[in-house]
Amino acid sequence: MRLLRLAKIITVSLRFGLDRMILDADASGRLGRIWHRVFFWRRFSEPRAVRLRKALESLGPIFVKFGQMLSTRRDLLPPDLADELALLQDRVPPFPTEQALAVLEGFYGRPVDAVFRDFERTPVASASVAQVHFARLPDGTEVAVKILRPGIERVIAHDLALMEVGAMLLDKAWPEGRRLKPREVVAEFSKYLRDELDLMREAANCSQLRRNFKDSPLLLVPEVYWDWCGRSVMVMERMHGVPISQTAAVTAQGTDLKALSRAGVEIFFTQVFRDGFFHADMHPGNIFVHADGRYIALDFGIMGTLNEVDKNYLAQNFLAFFKRDYKRVAMAHIEAGWVPAKTRVDEFEAAIRTVCEPIFDKPLKDISFGKTLLRLFQTARRFEMEVQPQLVLLQKTLLNIEGLGRQLDPELDLWKTAKPFLERWMNEQMGWRALVRGIKEEAPAWAGTLPQLPRLVHHNLVESSHHHVVHQAALASLAVTQRRQGRLLALLVIAAAALVALELHRLLG
After folding, report:
1. What residues does each domain of the chain span?
2. Any known ligand binding at 146?
3. pLDDT digit string (tens) for 357-374?
4. Residue 124, annotated as binding a ligand
5. Which residue among the candidates 90, 159, 215, 281 is catalytic per the annotation?
C-alpha cells in the first residue's frame, strides 16, 4: 500500500509541476534545463502556489491538513505560497453511517438506540479526522456527537511515513531545504495531527474554554457530557446559531455587525492576555452567532497557550509599536530570551524601524496586527531568533480574527478596539494592582505557613545554636591537636640539633 501511495504522490507532483519548484532553486539552472527537455510536453499556465494547493487537494485530507499547517509557517514560506495554502478547506465526504454506528457500539458496548433517545443517521459535518451527528441523551438533552473516522490512524501513519521520507530527501537534495527545515516541520505536523486523534483531549480543551468564559456576555462554549466521551467519541451540547460567514442571515436575526466585530477582538485579546489559552482554529466554519448576538465557538482540536513571558512580550511589542518605540520592541525580544543576549540593541532597533516605519503612512484601521507580528518575526530571524510554536499559532489566529472582523465591519480599527484592553492589562501587571493581586494569590499559602512561623523560627535558632556549639567544639579540638603537633615538632627539632652537635664534636674532637 505504501508503494502505491508513493507512486500516486510522485504522479500528482509531476502532473502539477511541483518538481519545478525544487529545480528552480538550482542556481546553475543546468538540472532544470535537462529536466525540461525530458518533460518537454508539460505547460503550466497557473502560478506555482495554485498548483501546490491543487496538488495537496488531490492527495487527500491528510495532505490538505498539512498544507493548512504550512500556511501558518509564514516565517518559512514565501508569501504567495502561504496565502494560497490558507485557502485550503478540510472538507471530505462523510464515511458511511454503518461505520459510525459500529464505532459507537464498539465504544459503548451496546446498540446506539440504547445509549441515545434519538440519533440522526445523517451527519451534519464531516472532516478528515471526524464527523458529527446530532442526537438526544436519555433525558432529552440535545447533543452533537463527534466520531473519529474509522481507520484514520493507519492512513495517517502511512502518509506521515512518506512525508518523513520526502522531508529527508528535500533536506539533502534541495538547496533551500535546510532553511525551510522540512524534517522539523513534518515532526511538528505529526504531533499536531496525533493530538487531534484523541477526542478526550479536545473535550478537555472545550471544557477549559467554557470555564474561562462562564456567564460571558460575548461567547458561548458548549458543555461537555463526560459520561458519554472517550478517545474516539466526544459528546457535547448542541449549539443553535447562524454560521458567521452568512452575514445576511446574521443581520436578519437582528445582530449588529459592527458590535459583533468589536466583540470578536475583545474575545481574542481576553483569551490571550487574561487566560493565556486561546482557540487557534478560528476560521468561519468554526464560528456561529447566537440569536442573542453572542459568538458560539466550535471545534477545539487546536488550542494555543501562552505563559507570562509570552504575554508580556506581546503586550510590550504591540504598545511599543504603536508608540514607535522601536528600542522597546528590540529590548522586549532580548529580555524574553528569543534573540541572543549578545545582540546589539541599536542594530536590532534599526532593522525593526526599517520594517515598521512605512506602516505609519497608512490609517490605523488599515494596519494589520497579524502581518506586523509576522514582519517582526521575519526581522528577528536575521538576528538568530528561534520562532516559538505558540507565537506561530497566535499569528495565524490573529490573521483569522482580523479577516473576520473586517468582513463584518470594513472600517474596524483593530488598534482602537484593542488598545484600552492592552493598556489595562499592562497596568494590572505593574504597580499596586499587581501587588494586591499577588497578595491575593499567595494568601492561601501564607494562611497555612503563618501559624508555623514561631515553631520554625525556634527550630532554626536551636539548630543554629547547636551548630554553633558543635563548631566551637571542633575548633577547640583542632587547636589542641595543633598544639600537640607543635610540641612534637619542637622535640624532633631539638633531637635533630643534638644529633648534629654530637656528630660535629666527634669529627672535630
Report:
1. 2-91+153-194, 246-429, 454-508
2. yes
3. 776 666 556 667 667 767
4. yes
5. 281
